[in-house]
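Consider the following assembly input.
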Amino acid sequence: MNARPKSRPLITWLILSAITLAYLALDRSVDNHGTYRASSVVTTIAILLALVKARYIFREFMQVRNAPALLRRLTDLWVLLIGAALLGSYFTGLAIH
Amino acid sequence: MRRADGELILFWTLPVLAVIWASAFLLFPGFTHPMSPSMTAAQVAGFYRDPAHLSRIRYSMILFNWFGVGLIPMLMLLVMQVRRMAHRTPILSYCLLGCTAGGPTVFLIADLFWLLAAFQPGRDPQLTLMFNDLAWMTFTAVVPFLIGQSLIIALAIYLDHPDRPVFRRWVAHFNVVIAAALVPAAFTGLALGGPMAWNGLLPFWVKNMAIAAWIVVMSVALGRNIYRQRADGSDQRAPEEAVAA
Amino acid sequence: MSTTAAGPATPPGPPAGSRLGRVAWHWRNNPKRELWFAWYTTVIFYNIFFIVFFPVTHAQPPPHPYWSDAQVAYWFNHNHDGLLIGLAIIFAIAGMTVAQNALIAYSMRRMSVSRAFGYSYIVMYSLSAVPGLLLLCVVLSVGAMRPGRDPAQVHWLYDFAFLSYIGTMGIFLLGSLVWMLAILLDKNRVLPKWFGYLNLCNALTEVVVAPAWIFHQGVLDWNGLISWWVNMVVFGVYTGAFIMLLRTMIQREDFGDGPLPDLRKDDRAKASALAGTPR
Amino acid sequence: MTDIAQAGPQPGAAGRPPGESAERPARAVPGQPDMWVLVLFEALVFTAYLAVYLFHRSAHSELFLRSQADLSPWLGTLDTLLLLTSSLFMLRCVQASRAGAFRAAMSQAFITALLGTAFLASKITEWALLVHGGHGFTSNEFFTYYFFLTGIHLLHLLIGFITIGVIICQLRRRERRSQEIVETCATYWHTVDLLWVLIFSLLYVVR
């Protein structure tokens, strides 16, 4: 644990911040001069990026990386669960309406 | 070594309270001839509009409002008695404490609805009827804490040390009977007339007489205990003769 | 029946006779009879509560807040018997709730925290039962008892009942936080710390019900997906958890005032056989 | 849920003295394993809220998109960066405290609290701007969700300030510091961050 490079948290933070900023570009990609347009692609990517960030926060900030296997698997399962629930409800909603 | 004894003072508030409650009860015209749930809205409105009734309703309910929580000291003295029993845990006294906190609140809500109905007797009779219904239903049907406290006192006595009981066995049996007498009142919403209506035999006469009997009998039993405990040294429980079941 | 500590005071086990015989034996000899009484009362109460509120009165899941006067009046007439019988049962048995609160207060007494925690909990929950349960029962009974009442007034009673019951769920929030704080401060290991945190989760979902005072439809109204259904699931998990944890606590109880001993594996089977509790 | 609590080597119940960090088992749950019940449970509860939101969003996507345009993506991004940075400092605080550098840990904890306060201020500013612009809790379905989700999240943040307070108290008392409690509280703070990341992408970014 103590062997961990000092810069590791900083790198994590940089990656998470970069993803956050990438969201802004993602937004621009479909909007038509300030008018928002519905896009399943953007929604899906936004959810997936959020899941990536969530897993990063679990692994690095919450230090699950060094936790017993059970907790590591459990948090991974949770990320999948959250993803399935969010994408599932979004696409179910789309299909119904 | 005569010092002021707080428990005794609390205990002797009971007769005063009983007089106040009895007079408030008799003062309320809706109790002396209990109001039938089958009265029409016009009849109920007429009851509140009758000048002879109106002040009696207001003053009696104001009295109940002041003294509605007056029974709490007696219940707390009972909690103290339950604490003296040979139980492993204080859980039954906790139960009794819970009943003490809940019961009077319900009574005060009923009182509030009666006063509300009497405040503007000129209101739409339908509204007066509704307030009157709310008051009677709260007063009559909401007996859970009364049933609860009787059964808990009974259970506490049954689980007490059989050779040196704080209360004698018959007090427990008495409480079970009282609890049983209170149960029909919970079902009063089902009947607008007959013996199960809120002016009927079971929900009104039996229930209120049971409450009165409970207060009187438990006061006597409590008073005997308090005096006996003072006679033989306040903290010790004197061995009583074994009570035959 | 703690075989760990009751030791020589424990009389020989119950007779291997009928179930009734075992119950009678426990009634006379089980040193934890008061605790088991409170625990069984809690379990029985929740069972009756569920039966009365879901299938009998149809007050749960709650009907819609956006109904017209006529629809509300129809609902009362349609459920007339169920409401009056079910709520009468609640009036008769609601006193059982004090046993649950007393047992929870006892769990806090057993902890290494001030007695003030347990007493606070008892009084908080006794008072909360008035708007949180009894007013609902009174007002729904009044609404159901006179089928001919003016529909506008019936509607007022309907709003009163459900807002008092669901809108004020926040009153259970502070009690939950008191219990949480006691568990987290406790050094006697009476209840696991994760349950302390679960209390916080429960308290946080009680907050979510408050928008029921504002919305007539949607996910935040009084039978909305978020304010009622999510809240109910969380409350169900929470209640199930504490019922099982209190049961384990009673089994572990040694009537001392130090840390509560753990159940050993073989004790666990024995304890539940002795107590006759379902496994 | 008990399984999590029993997973892995149990850290000492009362926490270990500061010098012991080197003997920390190679694989351990940071803080009380019990806190993970809250983390995972709250994650599920929020997932339920967000799933309901996404489901209803597709029914009125026009309304949602129009209302969403009134949110400032810049403020949302700023909020996210503030919380991510606060998490970074919280992690540094935990590492410093584990290494026995309590003065450093203390200043990291204060910076975390400061960033949390900045998030709070930014959120309140955003609310004030929206209310000023005529968007309230009851204006339309989107803003109901917006104020509900950000509000309940803010409540979690306020509780997070209490946990930072607990951390600072632990770091201040010399004789009985508990690294375990510090890590438990830190886990809670990261949860606030985690939940915001989900809320941010679903309120500000999705289309």
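Chain D has one domain: 31-205. Ask yourself how this observation constrains the way the partners meet.
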